Amino acid sequence: MPARRVRADARRNVEKLLDAADAAFRELGTGAPLEPVARRAGVAIGTLYGHFPNRRALARALLRDRHDALFARGDRLAEEPPGPALAAWIRAMAEHAALYGGLAEMLAAGLDNEASELHDDCARMTALTERLLAHARAARAVRPDVTPADVLALTTAAAWTRAQSAEQADRLLDHALRGMLTP
Amino acid sequence: MPARRVRADARRNVEKLLDAADAAFRELGTGAPLEPVARRAGVAIGTLYGHFPNRRALARALLRDRHDALFARGDRLAEEPPGPALAAWIRAMAEHAALYGGLAEMLAAGLDNEASELHDDCARMTALTERLLAHARAARAVRPDVTPADVLALTTAAAWTRAQSAEQADRLLDHALRGMLTP
DNA sequence: ACCTGAACACCGTTCAAGT
DNA sequence: ACCTGAACACCGTTCAAGT
């Protein structure tokens, strides 16, 4: 496809909006008021909506690079010893989903909701989880009754716990992984 | 102290407000709009605020009986075999904290925040958790590194998971408890 | 092609006036 | 002693007008 022509001022505005949104989401979570975001970026509120029709579209743009890195990590882990690889993957996802308050919920919802701008990314996370879990199961590194849904539920639960205390989230993962992996 | 005289219409209004709020919280979570609650109860919005200065006060009133039942359950469990009793207590708390969407967060916040109308109830839950965990530890039914905070974190995480899927929450508890209890 | 910002909608919360 | 509901504040979202 031909390179999309984008007016230089529009490109700059998008950059400034993303910077401001990242700061706001880090501080107040994914539900942060958007009018201050636009003001902080030096544009009118309509400009924000012009580039990002809704919160999820904004979140998707903010997470794009991070998600690429996460998927690359998952691909690399697929070549490593299956038990520790699965544990490392779960910890990586839980840490990622705690980047912004409310992100764990947003990602959990994106799994089911095909209309979500985050759905494709969530589907890739699920696919990687299934792949790493299959490896672990084949190596008898995980109990046979553990399902991909179990792993995803643990991940989002740990991400949510992390919003309150990173240490508690790690300890929750320790206990739950001990119950999921073979002794 | 002398019995507080309460005007009969005020008492009726409180009853109707609690019924309407319970329905709204069940449907929309603890963040449900309050104006429709007042309208549904047949009173003006100011009457709601007159009886309940904030959302937590309303939640506290709604949960009073349920909390009493939960504490009684905890007391009874303290007389039973310590390992299963601790597991049953965690499941009971997780189920309770999933009664309304957002309740798990509210209770977790009430633990730390002394100003919360829910703080006393949260403190009793903590005390019962500590007591049941101490019993389980004395009976060597639980791994020695499990802390009361670990148990509370698991409980709130499971309650939050329950908002999305009760079955997944139960499975999360299965796995995590397997990792916490002694084999 | 993009930006502006007024306009509309919605809800939380307070409080002066009424009964 | 309690209730009413207008009033104020705040934020999400849209869109006609402008550049």
UniProtKB/TrEMBL annotation, chains A, B:
Look up the domain of life of the source: Bacteria
User: HTH tetR-type domain spans which residues?
Assistant: 11-70
- Whether Transcription counts among this entry's keywords is yes
Supply the source organism's classification.
Bacteria, Bacillati, Actinomycetota, Actinomycetes, Streptosporangiales
Species of origin: Actinomadura rubteroloni
Q: What are the alphabetically sorted keywords of the record?
A: DNA-binding, Transcription, Transcription regulation
Query: What does the record give under GO molecular function?
Result: DNA-binding transcription factor activity; transcription cis-regulatory region binding
A Pfam family: TetR_N
Is the keyword Transcription assigned to this protein? Answer: yes
What the entry lists under InterPro entries is as follows: Homeodomain-like_sf, HTH-type_TetR-like_transc_reg, HTH_TetR, Tet_transcr_reg_TetR-rel_C_sf, TetR_SbtR-like_C
Indicate the residues that the entry says bind DNA.
33-52
The name under which this protein is listed is: Bacterial regulatory protein, tetR family
